[in-house]
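Service request form, structural biology core

Requester: graduate student, group of Dr. S.
Request type: structure prediction, single chain
Budget code: on file
Notes: please return the result as structure tokens.

Sequence provided:
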Amino acid sequence: MIKKNAEFGSKLRLVRERKHMTLKDVAGKAGVSESLISQIERNKVSPSIDTLIAIANTLDIDLEYLFKDLKHDKAVSIVKPADRNKLTMHGIEYQELSYIPESEINPSVEAFYIDIPVGKEKGDLEFGHPGRELGTIVEGEAELIYGTSKYNLTTGDTISFPSDIPHIVRNTGKTTLRAMWIITPGRIFIRNES
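Core staff response, request fulfilled:
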């Protein structure tokens, strides 16, 4: 049932009156009774979607106009630096920046900083994994080995690729390499989402 605070009725009445149409005019063109139009306009009944679409088409109303009151703010996630999940694996430090959980239509997304010490690397040259990656070099120099290809990266460079090809990111500079990385689906910070 449509919430009364959506005020479909008030909106429909306002548009109908501005177009100088009677209840009978709208009812006839929408294929419903005058009584039903009157009850909908007074928010006494909630119309079916089919009826609402028929009335909206009769009045030449954009459905976005009718439904805009039903939109709710989406959840905003803010992670303060002191609250970031941190993890060290094989000498590589990860700081989670954000995580978007998996939904019915989208895989999870994970964003994090990677700090790779001089001479170290992350990844695997034997196995890839499902998904995609996007990274930006924040500080330092790196080499991405992707399958049989090599790419030199420096501060400010951004790279993206399907991650099913074996790949590694190696620090080739003289200082710790810092990169901001996004992967989908998320796989670094393990979660139980059930």
